[in-house]
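S.,

Sequence below, as promised.
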Amino acid sequence: MTSADLVLPPTDHQTPTAALLPAPDAQPLDAALADMTVLLEQHGYVIALYPASLPVAHERRLYTVRSVLESDRIAFLRLDLPPLGVAVLVRQLRQLSICDFSAGVVASAARLLSHYIYAGAVLNSVTKLDRVPVSLKSHAKSWVPGSQFGVLANPGPQLVRIGAGQLAGPEFGTQLLVAKGQLQSDWVTSTLAPAWQVQGMQETALPADSPGWWGTARMIEFAAYLPDISVLYQLVSSVRREVCTWCGIELIGDRCGFCSAPLAPAENQPRAPGVLRQGTPMHQRP
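The prediction came back faster than expected:
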């Protein structure tokens, strides 16, 4: 991981923590190479996740390390999610890392699991929001004193003015993670959580990059996610596994998590579509 504030506390005693890959101005190249070498020796493979908003110099450092080491056992996954959504996905992959999945399956599972993360925020203004499509009407309303907006960036963009609409949420059981910025609002806890029928709610510190991502510090970020490792395991297991024809690593989905080589769509069909149901995994239903 590229930032300590994107490493959420583990959900249990088995979930491992994440190693940090600091920016070039925080760690010289020799030290970065040594750290990566140790990680490869200890674990065999390294799956590094980083947000799409990562500074270019930091991203370039990651690829420099892999290039110098000439290793095909390092995967870099660029995540186009809000900061809190990135943190949630990182923790889910940490949970899966202790299961009987290969490194290739865990890496390619990131794309699958990201579709089940509902990441958004409450904002007092959308005038500087460039991550989600905003209509001229919404821009105009953001200048009205007291206006607040509910915005969803993932899995699909949504925007409503609070008091005049509701965000469509997941149709399966989730927990809600909330990170408060400089905005006073109980909309997430009093309105959104009941409407989405979340099964639990926790608070965490706001990631440092969140105000920049959402265009304002007056915001509350949230993410609904699948917390149960058994459900995550079932979801990943329900997808047919393939072997990458380019690098030979096992994967799920339509793209290798290590070399990014694509698969033909027909080569990968899910065995069990509709793994999830509202509130309960299929294998627990009668």
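The CA atoms of residues 100 and 233 lie 9 Å apart.

Coffee later?
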